[in-house]
User: Fold these one by one.
Assistant:
Number 1:
Amino acid sequence: MGNIFDDLNPEQAAAVKCTEGPLLILAGAGSGKTRVITYRIAHLLQNKDNPCPPWRILAMTFTNKAAAQMRERVNKLAGPASLSVWISTYHSFCARLLRLEAEHIGLSKDFTIYDDTDSKKITEICLKELNFDVEKFKPSVICEMISSAKDKLLDPESYGVHAMTTPESIKKIAADVYELYQKKLKESNAVDFGDLLRYSVDLFKNSNTVLEKYQERFKYIMIDEYQDTNYAQYILTKLLAGKYKNICVVGDDDQAIYSWRGADIRNIMEFERDYPKTTVVYLEQNYRSTKSILDLAGKLIHNNHHRKPKKLWTNLPQGDSVVYTEFPNEFDEARAVADKIRAFIENEGCSLSEFAVFYRTNAQSRIFEETFTRFGIPFIVVGSQRFYERAEVKDILGYLKLINNPLDDLSFRRVINTPARGIGRATVLSIEKNAVEKNLSLYESAKDMHTGGLLKKAERFVKLIDSMIAEKNNMDASEISRIIIEETGYIRILEEQNNIESRSRIENIQELVSAIVDFEASADDKKLASFLENIALISDVDVWDDNKEFVTLITLHLAKGLEFPCVFLTGLEEGLFPVGSSAYTMDSLEEERRLCYVGITRAKKYLYMSGAAQRRIYGQIRWSIPSRFVKEIGLKPEPEVHREIFKGDSLIEASVEHDVPAGPGAASHFYKGLRVKHRDFGEGKVLEVSGSGDDLKVIVQFDAGFWKKLLVKYANLERL
Ligand code: ATP
Ligand code: MG
């Protein structure tokens, strides 16, 4: 093995060697921040003067996949000691910590982790129980409010106090729901994602002994993508690093894209204030992208005001120019992308995995999926293959979760009559009633009623669950799952149905068993609890295999940290990207711009940017002008831009034209920002003016929420 410092530039090497004391690495995209963390771990393990035991190192990554990659690389650099380093996401770290210390926070070690779907379900149950109208107060909205309270470490009580002081009545409802929600989770011996962090912080705050144990243990702490940490993660880190303060955070304020999920950019901006003796390292050489791509990224991000200025340069060649094309509609856009990929593959022998298509919203993947299918281009949509969300998979998992944690009421509800065993709504109500009267979990209540002769239909069910509970520590998870599938007759029933749907469901169940077997082959702990924790924390990017021969379709948010030789950045239209329409605040617009910056900087060699003049959204055709980001980076559309012109609501002209800059002059009586009124469309604001005389056109953003391009001559617009 060579010297690891041979692979690093002097600044990177300095950061790797600087192991003692707080270290902030603030640097632009592709400058080797993640690489520095990886090499720093290897260096700590191999340091001749003072090698660090692997279990004293903690590294936090943004996804489980990034954690696995980092471990693999450390393993290559420093050998199998890497296996004992804690490299994980914050959530996985907390889950592991809480399992070890469960009794300190009033949970049993078998606690269940509820995913977002489970959390929404419980929120809905709580809303109904509190007699709120779930049509009016959407469970998903309330659930998000609870989750964001947790990210700020607010417990139900403090959130309640906070809600009292606001005029927003929905917050008061959320506060009531939060209290009941939390009670239900506690009774079910369950935690949600937010609790993982909140309880970990509580654990450290409530017990000095426990805190000191972990402060002592994790002598070296490293955090990737620090710009996207939230308040709870910030506090947790601060507690952990409290003794040695050997904390190294890396990040890029220009890539902060998760503020809508509670991330707080101040964590990185004010790091030096929190840790006064911080060494700051700037990395300025980008190793990922060609000059063309990097220049463009720089131009774009320059438009943001809230940022630390950075230099970023590359030794890589100029490369091909970045191309921007405005297509007539989204189908043409998708076809052009498919054509381009095909041409690359045929002419240059590229592999499919070198291509990625980025878009702002999930819904945009559909057109690409359909087009690629027609073109015979294999693709994978990151985030869509929610295997563990499928009903049949959730059913079997429901059994496994109940066996692991018999207090888990949500899983009990899922499986008590699945497959059907004649236990209807009325019986479930009586089980619930008995549970409340005797202060039992639903499963205990069913068992109690069965023992008392009141629930004959549940005999096999209770016997099966009980016997599995007794065996769960002696059997592997795969064995338990096989017994469940056999004893409940789940597959047998599907076999009897014998149609395409049922056959695919059988395959999914078989796939689940394979997933469990795979897990057992690689995990140290093969127990049921360990498998369940692993899948509860799986994220969309984690299940994506980047080595397979597929084109990757992915949202910009999920593309963070990744890189591809060729990127198609699509849907660059005002209203779509930046998303939303008129109601930008400066902050939200800057975040959209950062997202665009993240997209651009994923590309290594080729970047194609595009948008569509017309696109169907929510079933309505919508007209768009090119995203302001395109203008900011000074890209001109490819010459051929087809636009169709409307008279009132009907198409009067389909033309080929160039973008004409807006502003006064020929069009002085119509100008950007002017308020106008149209007989059918109502009031709106002029966004762009082009052409002159009979050809004078305006793009109006109507208050009703859509855009129109109108020929002034016919549109009969009233100036307001
Ligand atoms: P991002 O901001 O996107 O998270 P990053 O700063 O974490 O990027 P890395 O992913 O660590 O950057 O590195 C970007 C690319 O450059 C990777 O392919 C990495 O292997 C390569 N790279 C980084 N430093 C060097 C170096 N000194 N020599 C050669 N290649 C390097
Ligand atoms: Mg990185």
Number 2:
Amino acid sequence: MTPRQWAVRIVNQLQKAGFQTLWAGGCVRDALLGIEPKDYDVATSATPDEVQQLFGIKKTLAIGKSFGVITVLGPKSAGHIEVATFRRDGGYSDGRRPDSVEFTDAKEDALRRDYTINGMFFDPITEEVIDYVGGQEDIQRKLIRAIGDADQRIEEDKLRMLRGVRFAATYGFEIEPKTMVAIQNKACEISAVSPERIGTELRRMLGHSGKARALRLLIEGRLWEQVLPSDIASDFDWSDKVGLLQELDSDFPTLLAAILSGSMVTASTLQDSWRLKNDEVVQADWILANEEKLAQAIELPWSQLQPLLVSPHASKTVDFLQAKLDSGSVADSKRLANSIALCREKLALDEAALNPSPLLRGEDLKELGIAPGPQFKSILDTVRNKQLDGELNSSEQARNWIIDSKQR
Ligand code: ATP
Ligand code: MG
């Protein structure tokens, strides 16, 4: 059974038992946008106890019961579905979550949701959209609009600011002006949202093909300056990066490096506040540390370029440089184009040609009567560089060179 079939069956069972039951929220939005929903949420007039009674204690989980949500377990192929009783949220004192919930009807349940496109219901039996908030019209107009009073809705839950930007970015929508003003006014309170959640939202919007729009809206919504470390000078013109992002299709760490390039901000300075993973930080900061050198590849001796190109992050860096070139934001575009071409040519070499095994190892130095110590590494490095630059072409030549230099 597919998740969709399972979600239809759950609605059917609840409706047959006499409860008004509908699909709600994100799955309705996605279906109307022609996107396969990630998961189906069901909303019902049945109370959590009634839902549990109908499907059986063994087939349900009550983790979310206090706010009206019962998880109904499905066959493996279908997965679990959250069945939520129509509710209205009590006050919000922490700027993030409702203090309490009260069970109510479908209309009020629509009104507690964040954006009109997320506030619709769908009856999969009659195939009817139930829209109390004008969501269908906003989908037509490609608009993210807060349900009700935008200032109040953003004030209640600051996460909605990032959700709004994410939906606009990933669907190619704009943010309706009043909603945008509400975001701008409350942007400085984004710290009410946990770093994990901030990181997740930013990763989702910046790692998506809509990332250029995401950055533009984050800047316009004044959120971008808020998610950067406050002690780092903010006189950088981030809007210059929108065009670059448009040209770059890559993974999240590479896109992050592209945004940060040229500013004082590194990925490691964002690690805690965005809860970045170590490997994301390592990749982004490698790109930041080496992009300039790779941009000058044609001027580097092979012994300096080769160690960069054997890095696992080299080809991502070259993709970023290509986007920089394509977005027309580079002064010396000829040099960059030639450097990119050289890097690409070298990266296409097979492993043995790009990274030949060293002519000598530590063992060989011992055999030559050199005592192990700090000079080992420097001798081996010198031999390696001479090998890469074509000055030493065999192990024997390398040995002779060492013997000669000892005598000197
Ligand atoms: P996605 O699953 O892509 O993150 P979604 O809109 O489905 O998007 P969920 O977290 O799955 O997000 O939430 C399901 C529905 O619950 C939303 O469509 C919306 O109606 C409501 N909702 C979720 N988060 C909030 C929030 N912070 N404020 C108000 N309503 C919300
Ligand atoms: Mg969802």
